[in-house]
């Protein structure tokens, strides 16, 4: 056997070993999830609070490990946007702790009756929320997601397998260790939260093929990652948000409101999926130049088509090309186009949207209702920043991702979206005639 054949055989053997190992971990998670089915709300909430306390007590260790990831990222030429996602500081740790406390304060979704009635024949019927079972997640360079998903999975009664990517390896290992210790401290199985990062990309591939072992797979990251999972996985997938987000500036929009909203939507945290990437301006807007000047002053690079460029000839801009309308910049860049009316804006959004979030800034009720009715994205916003498309901001405690599909879950996915339903039918010796 030649050298190449030996290498190929060895690689195949290694992949088989990884698949077997991931399947075994999924089985362990399944067994742990059965224990969680017996846990009441109080027990799960105590676990969430223990996770929060553990993260707070281990800040220095978490920061130390996060620093290793950031240094490696800079050495590898990681983009500014990705480094921002990767970074943990006191403010972000405080946010994670607050999210866990908020989750503990939310009602338990498990056992909630979706509908129920006594049928004419006397059968008693209920449809209730139940856990999915074992959730798999594949994400990249986002250590905060490790905590959000672990907390949401626990409260919704699920075990979770995490593949957080090599860029955040040290941060995720530190957080998972804290979370597993917290579970054990309240007598819940450590295997409710399992990382498979040690298996690298082969581990992610094994998760995608683990049909019957993993009940649902949720990817969270950039377009390449999400599409790879969607097109490859044999496990059912909930597709989450690549965010080519649009804002339409109507002709009668208030100037200060528009400046405040657009500046927030673009600059508050440009590296996340709910930041605005394209601004569409009504041709009759009297405030267009002021808005573009404000964005430029805030450090935003404007990628403009011809009519938009004519609004601000004194500004340094970049001529927009076709790719700009499709680009999720995740940075301080925005594509700008002037449109004749709201219908042209809607046509543009239909052509280029990824189905995440679209917003309108307007003083017209008719325009807002027209926009709401025709937008097909998971979230539509009127006179507010697109940054509000977020589980925490919408009262969900946290989110496992923002679903851009139309099946089962759509928009920010919180506790309810991590459950499915079960029909319970009770009778008194009923037989079908």
UniProtKB/TrEMBL annotation:
Q: In which pathway does it act?
A: Amino-acid biosynthesis; L-proline biosynthesis; L-glutamate 5-semialdehyde from L-glutamate: step 2/2
Does the keyword section mention Oxidoreductase? yes
SUPFAM superfamilies xrefs: ALDH-like (SSF53720)
Please give the PANTHER family that the UniProt record associates with this protein.
DELTA-1-PYRROLINE-5-CARBOXYLATE SYNTHASE, GLUTAMATE SEMIALDEHYDE DEHYDROGENASE
Q: What does this protein do?
A: Catalyzes the NADPH-dependent reduction of L-glutamate 5-phosphate into L-glutamate 5-semialdehyde and phosphate. The product spontaneously undergoes cyclization to form 1-pyrroline-5-carboxylate.
Q: Name one GO molecular function term.
A: glutamate-5-semialdehyde dehydrogenase activity
User: What name is this protein filed under?
Assistant: Gamma-glutamyl phosphate reductase
Enzyme class at the top of the EC tree: oxidoreductase
Q: Which UniProt keywords apply?
A: Amino-acid biosynthesis, Cytoplasm, NADP, Oxidoreductase, Proline biosynthesis
UniProt xrefs under Pfam families: Aldedh (PF00171)
Subcellular location per UniProt equals: Cytoplasm
Looking up NCBIfam families in the UniProt record yields:
PRK00197.1 (NF001221), proA (TIGR00407)
Record domain Aldehyde dehydrogenase: where: 11-306
Please give the PROSITE patterns that the UniProt record associates with this protein.
PROA
Give the enzyme's EC designation: 1.2.1.41
Give the HAMAP family listed for this entry.
ProA
Reactions accelerated catalytically: L-glutamate 5-semialdehyde + phosphate + NADP(+) = L-glutamyl 5-phosphate + NADPH + H(+)
Q: Which family does it belong to?
A: Belongs to the gamma-glutamyl phosphate reductase family.
Gene3D superfamilies on file: Aldehyde Dehydrogenase, Chain A, domain 1, Aldehyde Dehydrogenase, Chain A, domain 2
Asked whether the keyword Amino-acid biosynthesis is assigned, the reply is yes
């Amino acid at each position: 056997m030649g050298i190449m054949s030996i290498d190929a055989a060895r690689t195949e053997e290694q992949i088989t070993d990884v698949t077997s190992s991931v399947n075994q971990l999924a089985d362990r998670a399944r067994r742990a999830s059965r224990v969680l089915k017996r846990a009441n709300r109080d027990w799960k909430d105590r676990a969430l609070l223990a996770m929060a306390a553990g993260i707070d007590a281990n800040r220095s260790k978490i920061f130390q490990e996060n620093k290793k990831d950031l240094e490696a990222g800079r050495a590898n030429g990681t983009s500014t946007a990705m480094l921002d996602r990767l970074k943990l500081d006191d403010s972000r740790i405080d946010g994670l702790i607050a999210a866990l406390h908020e989750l503990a304060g939310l009602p338990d979704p498990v056992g909630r009756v979706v509908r129920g009635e006594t049928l004419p024949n006397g059968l008693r019927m209920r449809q209730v929320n139940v856990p999915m079972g074992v959730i798999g997640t594949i994400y990249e360079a986002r250590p905060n997601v490790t905590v959000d998903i672990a907390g949401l999975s626990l409260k919704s009664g699920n075990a979770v397998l995490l593949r957080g990517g090599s860029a955040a390896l040290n941060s995720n290992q530190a957080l998972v260790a804290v979370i597993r210790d917290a579970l054990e401290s309240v007598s819940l199985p450590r295997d409710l939260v399992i990382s498979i990062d040690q298996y690298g990309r082969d581990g992610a591939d094994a998760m995608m093929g683990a049909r019957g072992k993993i009940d649902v797979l949720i990817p969270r990251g950039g377009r390449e990652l999400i599409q790879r999972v969607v097109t490859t996985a044999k496990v059912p997938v909930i597709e989450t948000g690549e965010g080519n987000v649009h804002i339409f500036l109507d002709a009668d929009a208030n100037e200060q409101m528009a400046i405040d909203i657009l500046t927030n939507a673009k600059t508050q945290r440009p590296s996340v999926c709910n930041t605005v990437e394209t601004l569409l301006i009504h041709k009759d807007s009297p405030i267009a130049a002021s808005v573009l000047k404000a964005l430029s002053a805030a450090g935003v690079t404007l990628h403009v088509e011809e009519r938009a460029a004519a609004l601000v000839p004194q500004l340094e801009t970049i001529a927009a090309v076709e790719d700009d309308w499709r680009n999720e910049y995740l940075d301080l860049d925005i594509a700008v186009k002037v449109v004749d009316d709201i219908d042209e804006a809607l046509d543009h959004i239909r052509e280029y949207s990824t189905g995440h979030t679209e917003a309108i800034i307007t003083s017209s009720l008719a325009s807002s209702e027209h926009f709401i009715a025709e937008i097909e994205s998971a979230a539509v916003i009127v006179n507010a920043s697109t940054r509000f498309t977020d589980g925490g901001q919408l009262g969900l405690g946290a989110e496992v991702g923002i679903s851009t599909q139309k099946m089962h879950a759509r928009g920010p996915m919180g506790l309810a979206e991590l459950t499915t339903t079960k029909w319970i039918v009770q009778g008194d010796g009923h037989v079908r005639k």
